[in-house]
Write a structure and sequence with these properties.
Blueprint lengths: L2 H8 L8 H10 L8 E8 L2 E2 L2 E2 L3 E5 L10 E4 L5 H6 L4 E3 L1 H8 L7 E4 L4 H4 L3 H4 L17 H10 L1 E5 L5 E8 L4 H21 L7 E8 L5 E2 L7
């Protein structure tokens, strides 16, 4: 354990607090030379009497994530120019599908038009484990290629729990203003609140929630409302 990290632990308070009060501490812990991410992690109450509840939805971060996302688009040739002009990094049809089949995955998110999804669905064993298979519920299967690319570039993030109910995402960078990070945080909370309202979940949806920076220590958050 480095001296820098030991010092951070020594100054840590154990009591949970609101993000408004904790955010300054998290940013002050960003003592490295690079622009650290401000990360949120939480555990949902996914063990229900009628079986496991699995969270899988998207949240549009109003302030963006601060990360450069490489977008791949599988679409008809008639939409290739539109996809390129909208900011897609890789565009193709059967040729791109063949490259993916060969293991050439040079993108962080894949968007597909509905008519091409039949061909792409055969690559489920390749894309599925990596969380890259397009899904209409997540906005990655769409006729509106321009809109799908724009939302992905601006800060669309998937919320998906692991088998233990853990979820993690970035709220932005240290260089973001507090207001921008708070807007992103509130967007996440609003999305989770809607998920709880739309699903028969017994008790609170969120068990624990923490905020930290890339090389910092975590702080337990206290929410202003029960979710």
């Amino acid at each position: 354990m480095s001296k820098r990290f030991k010092k951070l632990i020594e100054n840590k308070t154990l009591n949970s607090d609101t993000i408004e009060n904790v955010l300054t501490k998290v940013k002050n812990n960003c003592t490295t030379k690079f622009d650290e991410s401000i990360d949120l992690s939480f555990q949902i109450n996914n063990k229900q009497k009628k079986g496991d509840f699995n969270l899988r939805t998207i949240v549009n971060l109003p302030s963006g994530s601060g990360k450069k996302i490489k977008i791949g688009v599988v679409c008809e040739e008639s939409k290739h120019n539109e996809a390129k002009q909208s900011g897609a990094d890789l565009v193709g049809g059967d040729d791109l599908i063949e490259k993916i089949k060969e293991g050439n995955i040079n993108f962080d998110k894949l968007i597909c038009t509905p008519s091409m999804m039949i061909k792409l669905s055969k690559l489920g064993k390749i894309l599925g484990p990596k969380g890259l298979m397009p899904n209409p519920k997540l906005g990655t299967v769409s006729e509106n290629v321009k809109k799908a690319i724009s939302e992905a570039k601006l800060g669309q993030v998937e919320l998906k729990n692991d088998k233990d109910g853990n979820v993690g995402l970035s709220l932005g960078k240290k260089s973001f203003s507090d207001d921008k990070i708070l807007k992103n945080f509130n967007a996440v909370i609003e999305t989770l609140d809607k998920e709880k309202s739309n699903n028969p979940i017994k008790g609170d949806l969120i068990r624990n929630i923490f905020i930290t920076s890339t090389m910092g220590i975590s702080y337990k958050l206290k929410l202003n409302k029960n979710i």
